[in-house]
Design a protein that fits this description.
By secondary structure, the protein is mainly alpha-helical. It has four helices and no strands. This is Biopolymer transport protein ExbB.
């Protein structure tokens, strides 16, 4: 499996995108914890959304390679099943990287919304005080 990961350029793109995405999420998390400030999360949202699509791209590329080999007639069962498994690996990797990032981002959105509502409530309290 490690050989499949290392030999597939789409897996490298998914891993590098995940690295940037998780770095952005961690920066947002620590910034929120220490300053209670919100930051622009659009880049992170785009990267998270791209991860499963990159996995799908890898699957399509792998399946097209398998079908091209089948068209030549020089393919045996082991090679075909290995090619399909290799193709599906990118989809799995994209989803495995994207799902925890979606969950972490949802937590950050929720925590920031609660903090903002709490701040607004305190501001109204002080504004209405005599």
């Amino acid at each position: 499996m490690i050989d499949q990961l290392l030999g597939n350029w789409v897996c490298w793109v998914i891993l590098l995108t995940s690295l940037v995405c998780y770095q952005q999420l961690m920066l947002q998390f620590f910034q929120y914890k220490h300053t209670n400030e919100t930051t622009d999360q659009q880049l992170c949202s785009v990267l998270i959304s791209a991860l499963p699509l990159l996995g799908l791209l890898g699957t399509i590329i792998g399946l097209l390679q398998c079908f091209a080999e089948m068209a030549t007639g020089n393919i045996v069962g082991d090679t075909l099943s290995g090619g399909i498994a290799n193709a599906l690996l990118t989809t799995q990797l994209g989803l495995v990287c994207a799902i925890p990032a979606w969950l972490l981002q949802a937590y950050l959105h929720s925590a920031q919304a609660i903090q903002k509502a709490h701040s607004n409530k305190q501001g109204e309290h002080y504004a209405s005080a005599p």
